[in-house]
Amino acid sequence: MDVCPYTNCQLTLSHSELSSSDAVLFHIVDVFLEKFKLPATRNPSQIWIGLTYEPPFILENSGVSLQKLNGLFNRTMTYRTDGDIVARHGTFSKITGNSILPSYTSNWVNSHETTKERNYAAGKHHLVAWFASADSKGKCDSQSGREIYVKELQKHVKVDIYGSCGSFKCGGKKNMRNSYKVEEDDCFMMVSQDYKFVLAFENTLCQDYVTEKLFNHLKLNVIPVVFGANNYSAVAPPKSVIDASEFEPEELAKYLKLLDKNDTLYNEYFEWKKDYLVVSHDGVPLACDLCAKLNNPEWKTERKVYDDFDKWFRKGCKKGFDHDKTKINLVN
C-alpha cells in the first residue's frame, strides 16, 4: 500500500483537546452507550464528523436515537457513497502498482499475468457453508430476511449452517479480538479448504452497506455468495462473488451445482487473485482520507450541516423482505 502523503494530522483521544481540535470524530454508537456529554459551547470553525460502519436498524437496536443526531454533524464517515468519506471494512490493492481500488476515477483492470494455474476445487468435499449467529435476544430472524432465502435454498442444495443459528459448531469467538486475522482462524481455514462456497448474507438491506464478512471471505479460497443491497460490482473485483439477489433460490442452487461439476468454471472466480489483494481496515478507518479532506481548504470552509441526519441516513434502506420475491428492491 502507498504511504499516506499527509503527516500533519494528529489523532487523539484526549477530551482536554476537544475545543482546540480542527475536527472531532464521533463514533456514533459510543456517544449513546457511554452517555457522552456534548461540549457546552462549540467552536464554530470546528468540523464534527459522524462515524459508523453500521446501518440505522443496527444502531437503533444498540440504543441510538438518530433523531437526536439531526443538526449535529458537518460531515459523515459511513458506508454511504453519497456521504463525505466512505468507511468500509476493506479495500483492494492492485498487486502491480499498489493502487487502491475501487475508486471513483479507476476501473478494475486485469493484467492477465502468466501465473501457475491452481485448481481451487481440489480436495473440497462440501458445497455450501454459512456462518449465522443469533442476535442479543437469541433470535435468528434478520431485518433482511436472509434466513428466508436460505430456507428456500436448502430445498435444493445442502447448506451447512455454523453458529448459534445452525447445527454445525466450529471455533470460538476469535473474531471478537482486536488483533483478529482470518488466516489465523481455524474455523475459516477449514471452510476455505473443505467448502466450495460460503454465504455472505447481510442482516440488513441498505444501499452501499457491506460488512467485514465480504472482505474476510474473499481472503479465503472459497467463492462468497453475497446477499445485500450493495452494488457488489463496484466494491469487489469482477467475477469474485456470486450475487444471490440475481437468482431465485432454486436457480442459484442449479448454478452452484454447475460450478461444482466444472472445475474450469469454478476456477474463473479466482482469476482476480492474480491482480488484487484484499486490504483490511483496522483501527480508525481511512485516517489518511480524513487527513486529506482536512488539508483541503474548500472542505474546511464549506459550512455544511446534516440538519436531517435521520432522514438522510435511512435513505436507501429496505424496511423488510418481500416474502413473495427473492429479488432485492430498495424502498426509501
From TrEMBL:
<dbReference type="Pfam" id="PF17039">
    <property type="entry name" value="Glyco_tran_10_N"/>
</dbReference>
<keyword id="KW-0735">Signal-anchor</keyword>
<feature type="domain" description="Fucosyltransferase N-terminal">
    <location>
        <begin position="4"/>
        <end position="89"/>
    </location>
</feature>
<keyword id="KW-0333">Golgi apparatus</keyword>
<keyword id="KW-0812">Transmembrane</keyword>
<keyword id="KW-0328">Glycosyltransferase</keyword>
<comment type="similarity">
    <text>Belongs to the glycosyltransferase 10 family.</text>
</comment>
<protein>
    <recommendedName>
        <fullName>Fucosyltransferase</fullName>
        <ecNumber>2.4.1.-</ecNumber>
    </recommendedName>
</protein>
<dbReference type="InterPro" id="IPR001503">
    <property type="entry name" value="Glyco_trans_10"/>
</dbReference>
<keyword id="KW-0325">Glycoprotein</keyword>
<dbReference type="GO" id="GO:0008417">
    <property type="term" value="F:fucosyltransferase activity"/>
</dbReference>
<keyword id="KW-1133">Transmembrane helix</keyword>
<keyword id="KW-0472">Membrane</keyword>
<feature type="domain" description="Fucosyltransferase C-terminal">
    <location>
        <begin position="123"/>
        <end position="312"/>
    </location>
</feature>
<comment type="pathway">
    <text>Protein modification; protein glycosylation.</text>
</comment>
<dbReference type="GO" id="GO:0032580">
    <property type="term" value="C:Golgi cisterna membrane"/>
</dbReference>
<dbReference type="InterPro" id="IPR038577">
    <property type="entry name" value="GT10-like_C_sf"/>
</dbReference>
<dbReference type="Pfam" id="PF00852">
    <property type="entry name" value="Glyco_transf_10"/>
</dbReference>
<dbReference type="InterPro" id="IPR055270">
    <property type="entry name" value="Glyco_tran_10_C"/>
</dbReference>
<dbReference type="InterPro" id="IPR031481">
    <property type="entry name" value="Glyco_tran_10_N"/>
</dbReference>
<keyword id="KW-0808">Transferase</keyword>
